[in-house]
């Protein structure tokens, strides 16, 4: 079966690993037959460009910068695996354009990062790193390192996703009050978690400690800046174990210097490695070199997760954690999976009906299918449509991107009403002043059927070599076509006819055993009252 991704043989897949991954975590890949693992950590950008050239898969953590240049240098690359959460080191747009799927390991390091955040907050509150260095220097200074308690303080959490939520739970265990801001945080969920919800400005104004846990994106770059520092309580403490760049480092420096911020605990930085920066000279700043996910458990877990997705991918199976295409739960996949081929075949079929460039594609889902997330089916239908002209580099990852970039508007429509069929997919295309449509279904135990082409009701298996002939409904037309095909030694496997009205426009859908050549199409067109002949190979 054609699954969400193009099938690719696992055999001889070259997997380049350019950041240190847990050896135990690499087991699923080592056990996969025919895989060549190339472990090349610490490469220069030039070395990476050369090494990636023949790689089928690239596995990274946060160090490797997977730029557009790297992606374009990789002639065979099909999948990039991020053994961790943040994908800000990967040019997702470039990967999507090239049809390269990006997968990550979103859950494996959640606990590790949450524990690190709590450790950093506690260390910051009690000046543990500074006191330790002082002691190492032979000083017994108890006065200088008086700290503050966490109990009864307010922790402001910006970004209440997987890690933010774990931090909230632990902070409550420290008897802190928690207030959080996240665009997806509802009052109900906050109530369930026993925390308060506020706007970003309310959160930063209320908090004694502020910790950020958003991804780094355009919208979150410098989310915490001079304006926001001005709104905070005097003596606030800041923690960043998410991504450098969410907090403006220059503004943080000024806020600490001015005394507005009492201290900061940083694990991540705008530029890494973060060495020799003036923030590190401030005694109020404690820091770790991006260690949030650096535990034996987390590293094993993220490497296993990403390795398994790579094995799934090369085995032609749906991946669990795609970043640049919709992810589908196992339950939904069980429902829509059987329709992947049908959607692609309907797309491929309709691509033969329009003569002018397509401007619009409408995909309609009727019946049971309408209850599910059908975006993967839409991508498959688009893939089928675009493959005719764009060839095999179209896949589920870039189908939507390619449609957008050539100006084809794509829309999805759903209705649970479906006359006569339990589930029906209709692909409609507009091309200039033409509109064409094809509808198909899956018949229990019998497989795919095309049941309608434009306004004609048919019953055709979308496979092999098809001939679609438009003609005038009158006696003899079908016989003449049959005779001509016999003369050309083309065997008819099935034939279906449909008409709008007696004596009006009609179509023949003929399945033949061998390909119909252009000169045979020309002969068919010479038959009286035949208006159009399309050959469709599926
Ligand atoms: N230091 C480390 O080693 C380490 C380890 C793991 C993860 N991380 C980083 O931690 C961050 C969080 O990871 P996660 O797994 O919890 O991700 P997540 O996707 O589960 O959570 C991110 C949350 O941020 C929210 N968000 C997005 N934009 C926002 C905005 N403008 N304001 C407020 N909230 C916003 C999202 O709604 C989401 O709930 C990521 O940046 C990730 O890369 C760092
Ligand atoms: O986003 C992540 O998962 C963390 O920042 C971990 O990054 P790392 O894999 O480089 O430790």
TrEMBL record:
Name of the protein in question: D-3-phosphoglycerate dehydrogenase
Q: Which UniProt keywords apply?
A: Amino-acid biosynthesis, NAD, Oxidoreductase, Serine biosynthesis
What catalytic activity does the UniProt entry give for this protein? (2R)-3-phosphoglycerate + NAD(+) = 3-phosphooxypyruvate + NADH + H(+); (R)-2-hydroxyglutarate + NAD(+) = 2-oxoglutarate + NADH + H(+)
Q: Give the pathway.
A: Amino-acid biosynthesis; L-serine biosynthesis; L-serine from 3-phospho-D-glycerate: step 1/3
Entry's EC annotation: 1.1.1.95
Q: Which GO terms describe its biological process?
A: L-serine biosynthetic process
Tell me the Gene3D superfamilies matching this sequence.
3.30.70.260, D-3-phosphoglycerate dehydrogenase, domain 3, NAD(P)-binding Rossmann-like Domain
NCBIfam families, per the entry: PGDH
What molecular function terms (GO) are annotated for this protein? Answer: NAD binding; phosphoglycerate dehydrogenase activity
Q: Which family does it belong to?
A: Belongs to the D-isomer specific 2-hydroxyacid dehydrogenase family.
Q: Which domain of life is it from?
A: Bacteria
Q: Which Pfam families match?
A: 2-Hacid_dh, 2-Hacid_dh_C, ACT, PGDH_inter
* ACT domain sequence ranges: 466-538
Explain the purpose of this protein.
Catalyzes the reversible oxidation of 3-phospho-D-glycerate to 3-phosphonooxypyruvate, the first step of the phosphorylated L-serine biosynthesis pathway. Also catalyzes the reversible oxidation of 2-hydroxyglutarate to 2-oxoglutarate.
PROSITE patterns named among the record's database cross-references:
ACT, D_2_HYDROXYACID_DH_1, D_2_HYDROXYACID_DH_2, D_2_HYDROXYACID_DH_3
InterPro entries registered for this protein in UniProt: ACT-like_dom_sf (IPR045865), ACT_dom (IPR002912), ASB_dom_sf (IPR029009), D-isomer_2_OHA_DH_cat_dom (IPR006139), D-isomer_DH_CS (IPR029753), D-isomer_DH_CS1 (IPR029752), D-isomer_DH_NAD-bd (IPR006140), NAD(P)-bd_dom_sf (IPR036291)
């Amino acid at each position: 079966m054609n699954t969400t991704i193009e099938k690719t043989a696992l055999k001889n897949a070259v997997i380049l690993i350019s950041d240190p991954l847990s050896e135990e975590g690499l087991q699923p890949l080592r056990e996969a037959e025919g895989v060549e693992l190339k472990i090349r950590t610490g490469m220069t950008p030039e070395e990476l460009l050369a090494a990636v050239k023949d790689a089928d898969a690239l596995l990274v953590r946060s160090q490797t910068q997977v730029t557009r240049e790297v992606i374009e240098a990789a002639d065979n690359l099909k999948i990039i695996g991020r053994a961790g959460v943040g994908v800000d080191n990967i040019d997702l747009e470039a990967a999507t354009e090239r049809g390269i799927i990006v997968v990550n390991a979103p859950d494996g390091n959640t606990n590790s990062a949450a524990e690190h955040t709590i450790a950093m907050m506690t260390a910051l509150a009690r000046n543990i790193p500074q006191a330790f260095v002082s002691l190492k220097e032979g000083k017994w200074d108890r006065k200088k390192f008086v700290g503050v308690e966490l109990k009864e303080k307010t922790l402001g959490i910006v970004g209440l996703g997987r890690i933010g939520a774990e931090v909230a739970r632990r902070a409550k265990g420290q008897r802190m009050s928690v207030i959080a801001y996240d665009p997806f945080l509802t009052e109900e969920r906050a109530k369930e978690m026993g925390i308060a919800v506020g706007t970003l400005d309310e959160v930063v104004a209320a908090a004694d400690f502020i910790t950020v846990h958003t991804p780094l994106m355009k919208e979150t770059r410098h989310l915490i800046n001079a304006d926001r520092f001005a709104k905070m309580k005097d003596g606030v403490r800041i923690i960043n174990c998410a991504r450098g760049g969410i907090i403006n480092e220059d503004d943080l420096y000024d806020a600490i210097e001015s005394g507005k911020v009492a201290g900061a605990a940083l694990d991540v930085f705008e530029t890494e490695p973060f060495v020799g920066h003036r923030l590190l000279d401030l005694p109020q700043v404690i820091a770790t070199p991006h260690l949030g996910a650096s535990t034996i458990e987390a590293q094993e877990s993220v490497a296993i997760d990403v390795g398994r997705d790579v094995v799934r991918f090369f085995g032609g199976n749906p991946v669990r954690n795609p970043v640049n295409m919709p992810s589908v739960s196992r339950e939904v996949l069980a429902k829509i999976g059987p329709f992947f081929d049908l959607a692609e075949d309907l797309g491929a079929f309709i691509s033969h009906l329009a003569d002018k460039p397509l401007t619009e594609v409408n995909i309609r889902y009727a019946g049971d299918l309408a209850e599910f997330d059908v975006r993967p089916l839409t991508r498959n239908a688009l893939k089928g449509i675009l493959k005719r002209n764009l060839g095999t580099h179209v896949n589920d990852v870039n189908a939507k991107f390619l449609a957008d970039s050539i100006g084809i508007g794509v829309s999805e429509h759903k209705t649970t009403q479906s006359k006569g069929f339990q589930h029906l997919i209709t692909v409609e295309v507009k091309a200039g002043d033409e509109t064409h449509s094809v509808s198909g279904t899956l018949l229990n135990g019998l497989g795919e059927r095309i049941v309608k082409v434009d306004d004609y009701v048919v019953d055709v298996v979308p496979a092999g070599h098809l001939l679609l002939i438009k003609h005038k409904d009158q006696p003899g037309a079908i016989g003449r076509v049959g005779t001509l095909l016999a003369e050309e030694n083309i065997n008819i496997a099935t034939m279906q006819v449909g008409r709008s009205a007696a004596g009006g426009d009609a179509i023949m859908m003929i399945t033949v055993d061998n390909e119909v050549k252009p000169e045979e199409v020309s002969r068919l067109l010479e038959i009286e009252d035949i208006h159009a002949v399309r050959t469709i190979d599926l």
